[in-house]
Task: structure prediction
Amino acid sequence: MDIRRITQEQDAQQYLNLCKYCFPNSNNWIDHMLPLPEHDLVFGGFRAGALQAATVSKSFSASLFGQNVGMNGIGAVVSAPEGRNSGCVREVLAHVLRHERERGMLVSALYPFLFRFYEKMGYGYIGGMAAYTFKPEDISAFTISGACIPVASSDHVEAMIRVHNQFVRQYDFGIDFTDDIAKYLERLTPSGPYAYIYRNSGGETRGYLEYRLIEIGSFSKNMQIERFGYLDAEAFQALLAFIRSHRGQCAEVTMPVPDNVPLRHIFQEPRVKVEPHANWMGRPLDVEAVLRLRLAFEPCEREIAFSVEDPILDQNTGTYTLQGTTVMKSAHSGRQAVPFAVFSSLLFHAMTFEQAYYAGKIGWHDEAAAHYFSRKGAIYVSAEF
Result:
């Protein structure tokens, strides 16, 4: 199979046609997905000129272990029905991961259509968010000294970007705001989406909210929160007070949040509907470099050793020894083996060692490893792809 970047118009049209075959297109998003931003690429696998499988490979600056790193995002993966069950998608994705590692990306993330499919390529579950559905009047009343104002200028967007980027950096996989300012303002139409910033009484922008209003029936709407961020308790309360101001207009609000956002505690009646939302998978592209980042952020008190075998990137296969802030890699011994997808979940705080051991994911136990891989953390993959 010939795997190459899709740059020619004929190849691009094949990709768009296959996207329409594979995905719902009720809002015509496929018609507007190309051209991509400068650093984002499309790769496809061809046989006799016919596209068999393809994917978008996006580039982000994302937070990880207190640092900003290059992150690859896989999206819009498609396959022709005549090429399925023949390894075409795997070949294309393997090509993409090798390419992204070579250009300096440290991690890759995706929203899976099927977890077990991507586990075979080393992706592990890294976490998600919780989607709360509630009535605006469920929110407790707050006294606010500042004001929420509609985003209507480049200065407003720049202030929103500052809040967003500072907010997401407390989370692993938090992605910097990359929208073009002029294009972002064009998106904000009278029919939505809508964006507001919160300015405190001193004139500082400390929060923002982006949302849509979705018609239900003839006389009501629901509110769908798409993005938000806040830098202090006052801003958090102000955003919720703004949502509460839609009581009587909106029947329900759906708001996806990272696990550590105290949303449940602002309701007068905390028994609201909560569902899992946006469960992501991720994997390291350069294991040694990502381990060094984690050890600098979270040193390993006692020496631990384990072996991993990367199903895609041979450079990552080996036996790793961690001590303090140091990682040493040696030839793969197979000693204390950890399946790569499980290692990805452990590495990114989505699974503890004890959970992996009790679930039968790991066949050995070590107190030092159990201690180091014992903390779970909240993530916020703050862009859709």
Observations:
- Residues 159 and 205 are 6 Å apart (CA to CA).
- DSSP finds ten helices and 15 strands in the chain.
- Residues 88-102 form the longest helix (15 residues).
- The domain at 286-372 is CATH 3.30.1050.10 (Nonspecific Lipid-transfer Protein; Chain A).
